[in-house]
Design brief:
With 418 residues, the chain is α+β, with helices and mostly antiparallel strands. The protein has 13 helices and ten strands.
Length: 418
């Protein structure tokens, strides 16, 4: 986006500020005086048949009342401004205003109020309020998009129409005509719980099964300067962001309203995510649903990015910017049936490893080569927990007897009587 001094709207704003700073206080003062005079004219003086001295006194008294009315209105505007700023103690301020006006009324006969001074004060107050409001207007016109810690991107919107996409930086926007629709550059995501309505494919002896689980969806906003391949067409990230702006619900994804905006965003994607999960499950049997997570995630990316009518497809979001992590779950009974052969195989493997470990221990204590009969004998003495130190000692003695020869190889072995 161009620098401030190169933007036409910036110079339009400068001219408006100068014009308003000069003429608004004058206009306010004139309107104020006109309003006060009209109020006074409601109660005209009856000067018929009165002496000149009395007439002068009545006119002077009326001028004092006009000044009092002007002060009362000025005080009221001041108290109203204070209340608007603090949003507190309106009733108390109203009572203070009433008491102040009443005291001025009591003192009106003792003091002389100069109307010129009153209206000069009105002009000064109007000038101060104008400068303050212009300052506040200027502050909201300079809009920061992201920061070093939290970079962001934005679409410049003028009168509801997207103009261009911009990156991080400080920009001038003429409010209320312009604004920045911001989006983070970091990956955002949400987890969807699937509780019903999804089934696997029936395959021979394997019946269709209800599938539940969790689907984690991750979306990385496009970089405005990077080209992407969208259905065979080359689109920049800026074009994609502008397309998202045209179709997304109103809301800023950076700042105070970001949480509500993301809730609307992910809720809008709810039917799409569920449809992608259902489509990926229906082409797989229940066993494939358990194991083929990579294929399921790949099929879901294709579905949400290409299926007509899906928001991500309408926004022209490339598949590279979306990712899924699925955790499907089949019914417990079916899960146990699938796990039974796996558990049995693991138990058999564990038993073989345990037997090999015992054999290695016998070899280590000198039972040459791990004699099969001695191995069986010592394994039995271990009670399924492996041979104890005592049993290994007896086995060593038995092995010595066996080597010397003498009867049955097991007949000379008694673990209780060496």
């Amino acid at each position: 986006m161009d620098s401030f001094w190169k933007q036409k709207m910036f110079w339009v704003w400068v001219v408006l500020v100068v014009f308003l700073a000069i003429f608004v206080p004058i206009i306010v003062t004139r309107v104020f005086g006109f309003t006060v005079q009209n109020i006074v004219d409601i109660f005209p003086l009856d000067l018929d048949g009165v002496s000149e001295k009395t007439k002068e006194e009545l006119i002077k008294k009326q001028e004092q009342h006009v000044s009092l009315l002007a002060l009362a209105i000025l005080l009221f505007v001041g108290f109203l401004a204070i209340w608007y700023r603090t949003q507190k103690h309106f009733i108390k301020m109203l009572l203070v205003w009433v008491i102040s006006v009443y005291l001025l009324y009591l003192l009106i006969a003792e003091i002389t109020i100069n109307q010129l001074a009153i209206f000069s004060l009105v002009w000064l107050v109007a000038q101060a309020m104008t400068v303050y409001l212009l300052y506040r207007w200027g502050r909201i016109n300079f809009d920061q998009c992201g920061s070093v810690e939290k970079p962001a991107q934005a679409v410049v919107v003028r009168l509801g129409k997207d103009i261009k996409a911009v990156g991080p930086g400080l920009y001038f926007t003429l409010r209320p005509l312009d604004r920045l629709w911001k989006f983070p550059t970091a990956t955002v995501g949400a987890t969807y719980n699937v509780t019903d309505g999804v089934y696997s494919r029936a395959d021979g002896t394997i019946s269709s099964q209800p599938i539940t689980g969790n689907v984690s969806f991750h979306f990385t906003p496009p970089d405005i300067n990077t080209p992407y391949n969208v259905r065979g067409q080359s689109k920049t990230g800026g074009e994609i962001l502008r397309q998202m702006f045209r179709n997304l619900p109103a809301g800023d994804f950076v700042g105070k309203g970001a949480k509500e905006a993301f809730v609307r965003f992910f809720k809008l994607l709810d039917p799409t995510i569920l449809g992608g999960f259902r489509q990926a499950m229906i082409v797989r049997n229940s066993d494939e649903c358990r194991h083929d997570k990579a294929g399921i995630e790949r099929d879901m990316k294709v579905y949400v990015s290409t299926e007509d009518g899906n928001p991500l497809a309408v926004w022209m979001i490339p598949m590279d910017l979306v990712d899924f992590e699925v955790k499907p779950k089949i019914p417990d009974a079916m899960e146990e049936a699938y796990m039974a052969p796996e558990i049995a195989a693991k138990k058999a493997e564990a038993s073989k490893k345990e037997a090999d470990a015992i054999k290695r221990k016998l070899v280590a204590v000198g039972l040459g080569g791990g004699d099969p009969d001695a191995f069986i004998l010592v394994d039995g003495l271990g009670g399924g927990k492996g041979p104890s130190a005592e049993n290994v000692f007896y086995a060593t003695m038995a092995a010595s007897s066996m080597r010397q020869g003498g009867g049955s190889r097991f007949g000379v072995f008694n673990p209780k009587k060496p």
